[in-house]
Amino acid sequence: MIGRSDILALVPHQGAMCLWDEVLAWDAARIRLRTGSHRAPDHPLRGDGRLRAVHLCEYGAQAMAVHGGLRARAGGGTAPPGLLVALREVRLHLGRIDDLPGPLEGEAEALAETAASQQYAFRVLHQGTVLAEGRAAVMFAPPA
Prior knowledge:
By secondary structure, this protein is α+β, with helices and mostly antiparallel strands. 18% of the residues lie in helices and 38% in strands.
């Protein structure tokens, strides 16, 4: 199993801003993760004591980052820094997530990639029910 300390070594998101706790499975095309971070009272994305479903887009983007980090590590390198530049066809199926009792599971699948960008589809689920889904695009910083 790939745990939180491994995830922290792969992504720029650190401390409480690293939203995923463990990788359940992954291959070259997709990843599946799990977390309980949405229940943390000190979650960095909370506002007015609540964590809204729109923040599931960040969970999706971080699933992409973890996947990219794992793929780069498997190839003997590190993932380049990226910037989330687009969200498309996002569907949120509830209003808030901080009151959900069990862990969240995330899935991301690489759809297209070039040396400069990647596009993924993502889904975040709770107890088998889809909470959010959509597509996200990331642009990479040019090599220095």
